[in-house]
Amino acid sequence: MKGTKSRQYGESDTNLSFETLAEVNREASSVLFIDNNGTILGTSEKIWDRYPYLSVIKLFEKLKKKKKIAEAEFEEKGRILKIRGKPLKNVFMIEIEDITSQTCIEDFKKKVISTISHELRTPLTIIKGYAELLSLETDSDILDKMSVQIERIINIVNSISLLMKGQEGELVDIDVKSVVEEMAHQFEDKIAFKGIDFHIDVEQGLKIKAEKILFQQMIINLLDNAIKFTEKGKVGITGYKTEENIVIEVYDTGRGIPEDLQPFIFEKFVKSEESPGLGIGLSLVRTIVKHHGWEIELNSAAGKGTTFFVKIPISS
Question: Does residue 283 surpass a pLDDT of 80?
């Protein structure tokens, strides 16, 4: 838009007049400008009059509280709309996007994963029973370890199934450092085999509320990804508190994510050609992050490595 300049993501400035923005409102179908009272410029209509949904009211409240960006989704006349609001100099810009097709595809993917999870549960339970039966007849640490890991897989499958159905589990208090160390322990053999320099640097006393099995799975997926794509160099995980968030960083000096793939890397079944996986690990990470109301960002450069930042609001 002529006359509008971006300063940084989520924060813009404008020198356009209210009259011009009102004209844009009359002509454009995918963008609106509203004032500080929620009135659509050039009309007497409030944004929640045109889109009478609770999510839209919450979006406006977030913008009034100086959020750099706020989003809302709702269904209207059989279409699923997503609106994104952000502040300009003295108005708010609202972008409207029809995401019906993307949502249908996403629902289909969820059904596929949910079906796979359901089909895995029965054979895993049987295998666990056999392992426990064998452990009664044979005194073996290996069988005990197998039972623990099988139980863990069953819990993961159950959690993924709940997640895909949009159901919530129990939030519990979690000590970040102890969970990170516990999960990292599972990778010791793989790290030693590759000769990777591995570091954990998580502040003492970092506490969050989360579904524990999902938080554990998020750490595992991020670490597994970092180790998998690092042939030599460093992999690490840090945790610290800022004014607004508890931040968990998982970094590596591996091959990095190609720039053209980065915008889609959290989508299901998206992966680089070199990846041996199915492309659902990072998708599950994002699902877990969104499920808890957190945020995730990445910084990656080909040949230099990748860092994922999980931001957990202190108030959550």
Answer: yes
